[in-house]
tetrahydrofolate synthase
Amino acid sequence: MKDDLTSHFAEFLYDQGDRIGLLKQVLRQLGNPDTNYSIIHVCGTNGKGSTATMIAALLQKMGQRVGLFTSPFIGDVTNSIRINQQAIQMTHFNHYLNRLQQLMASFGDGKQELSEFEAQFVTAMQYFSDQGVDYVVLECGLGGELDATNAVTTTMYSIFTKIGMDHTGILGNTIEEIATTKSKIIRKGNTTITAPNQRPQVSAILSHEAIEKNAVFLDANQVQIDQQSDDRTSLHYQFNDRAGHFKFGLQGAYQVENVRTVLLWLFDFQKHQRSTIDTDRLLTQALGKLSVPGRFETISTKPIIMIDGAHNVDAISAFVQSVKQSFPKQPKLIITGFLKDKDYVDNVRLLAQIPNATFRLTQPDNPERKLDKDHLQTVFKNVTEKRYPTFRNPIVALKNSMAEASENPELVILVVGSFYLINPIRDYLIKTRSDSND
């Protein structure tokens, strides 16, 4: 049973009526709390959470009080609303939700309702205002133009991570339609930054929208990164006449692409703030030991267990590259499961490219949207000509895999797929670790 009150709100209302108009009215009723701080809006398909977390960490190290709103949440729902890396307390979270319920009951004809995500977003905006933050790093949900977060009055930055094919049918059925939907978060006169290696048609759409909005448009292809071959935790950067190096704690090859976007934001931010801070030292202090839950995260070392919420083609492709780089020769046991509305067939084709790997197939903790384990087994059989074991419960799949690892110390366990899969596994491992330390 949930400890929070989000279940009192509708599960999904994204495409039902003018959601942004309603949310703007709600924010107005609350005194426009979103205007009491500067907002850095992060949108895209993959890398949003990591990029947002890095920016928030840098701002905090620069002495700012920073609100961070991310989704989907990892672990407890309160982790989606944080100030200087501290999650909102559940009592405070429920207090804001209660107030919001009362407001909606008296709103117009009393028949208007908010979704869980919309309620979390409004709660974050109020909480950050009441707590007097200087900046808010605001991660989009699944969309752009119609995403709840686009109800804010204005933004300082619009930052776009890699845009790919996901949530088709809601955001659009082509990469051009999806990019156009996401581009609508760009605000008049702000600074818009795009990740490196965007598809050319995506960059063109974002650039066009920025020009239409009289926004400054910056492309992170300008920033070059070299990874030191003898030390993967050390990065060297080059941007125009600036160069330097810093320690970087995030694992996963795809994080190098994300940090290029973050660096371009940082250089622009420092220029406008006339900052004299030592950039290399700042980067090392903020990012040297940073971790992002659920993104190529090492959750156990004996045995090695890593989890990654990659669930679409671009993210799975990046995951495969990271596994090949980090574990080139080790035997790998991969626990995986997807939602049925994802492109799971292509995901399986990509996962099958990982050398020296075997699979354990399960299903995410989402009764309505889960892809049945037996269907996933059939897909793997068609792709690999092998029939891998299936498990209805992700935790049973994990225990089975850990038993195998106890007999083979070199075995690396990887968990990849839907956040509805990695969340229960991550919670179980953290609780088990906590219990063993008591």
Q: What stands out?
A: The domain at 6-287 is CATH 3.40.1190.10 (UDP-N-acetylmuramoyl-L-alanine:D-glutamate ligase). The chain has a mean pLDDT of 90. Residues 203 and 396 are 44 Å apart (CA to CA).
